[in-house]
Every structure is written in structure tokens, then in C-alpha cells.
Write a structure and sequence with these properties.
The complex is a heterodimer of chains A (112) and B (112). Chain A has 112 residues and is mainly beta. Chain A is built from no helices and eleven strands. In chain B, strand 9 and strand 10 form a beta hairpin. In chain B, the strands form two sheets. In chain B, strands 2, 4, 5, 9, 10 and 11 form a six-stranded mixed beta sheet that branches. A five-stranded antiparallel beta sheet of chain B has the order 1-3-8-7-6, with no helix packed on it. The chains are: A mainly beta (112), B mainly beta (112).
Chain lengths: 112, 112
Amino acid sequence: DGGITQSPKYLFRKEGQNVTLSCEQNLNHDAMYWYRQDPGQGLRLIYYSQIVNDFQKGDIAEGYSVSREKKESFPLTVTSAQKNPTAFYLCASSHRAGNTIYFGEGSWLTVV
Amino acid sequence: ELKVEQNPLFLSMQEGKNYTIYCNYSTTSDRLYWYRQDPGKSLESLFVLLSNGAVKQEGRLMASLDTKARLSTLHITAAVHDLSATYFCAVDKETSGSRLTFGEGTQLTVNP
């Protein structure tokens, strides 16, 4: 089936650790995105990539890093520099600008 | 800075009633998206509105866009319990790529 797969669905992180959230899509979409959602709030853009080997910071990029080595993959690393990482993380993709953006099932990250 | 405001933020309505959710945004944009989110789940795309005067309908939901007023509406007709969810509007802040700015969401509860 075509879609966006995020893993893991639930992740616990100790303070000071880096963690990487996986996002894979088999929709042949050019653009991929990472959003963060805090309880009771809307989504905020962390990073986005419109083409392989290129990505741009979104509105809240500090403490996060990404790579786009393959068209279908856009992993997000939450570094120890991110002071309040507990949130719901959503990966998304789209064919190109102006097209519908589709979301994965999300990953819950909790700092313990 | 692009701001997107939804109102109301919370809406409780009875089955069979009609209501409208409003989405105002602060800068010029020709692309507006509506999404639905069930508790603990990802976002489901409902509508993509790409031009002034665009109107789209799916079942009991109808969305419209007035780019001159910087306003989109999501109208609910004869609400049913299954429509209970949080509804987000999102505006594309760039013409060269899809960088969505989301509203805070409207939490809709439809009571029997």
C-alpha cells in the first residue's frame, strides 16, 4: 500500500540523548516535511525538503536536524539541544508546491 | 509573520444542526487547506482551496475561500456524531513551496 510510514510510534528518551525518528514514503513525492504538535495546539514546521540533498529550516528548527539522502526518506534527529522535546511529531509529503500534503501516523516522543 | 486564527476553538453542537467554523489569516495567500484530526491520530486532508471564490463540498462539509477577505469557512450541515474531531485550517506561506502555517484548531463535539 502507498503511504507514509513513521517509526517508532512511541519513543522514550532520557535527557541528554539524541533520538532519530524515521519517515519513509512510497508515494514518489518530491517534498517532505516534519511538523511538531503540542497538546491542544496546531502544528509547527520544523524542517522541510523539496528535493533530495536539500532541506530548509522551518519555524522551530533549533535543536533538530534532518537529512534527505534518498527521495523516499527524511529522518529527523531530536538532539539534546532541544530543551522541550516531548511532543507528537508528524512527517508529511507532497508531490510539489500547491498539492495536497499527506501526513504519516505520527510518533510520540516523551522525555523521561 | 503569517498568523492563522480559527474560531471558535471549541464547538459543541447537537446532531442535525448547522454551524460554521471560521479561519482568518494575516497575509496574502492563494492556498488554504482544511484537515481533520481524531484524538491521538494523524491529520486527514479534507479540502484544498487554490483560488479566490473556491468552494468544495464533501458530504456534510463545505469549505470556501475568500482571498480578498483572507477568510475561509468550513460549514457543517446537519451534523452527525461521526463529525466529532478537531478541524485545522492551514495556509501556505510561500508560492515556491508548501510551508503551512496552521491555526490552533477547532475542537468539535457533536452530541446526540
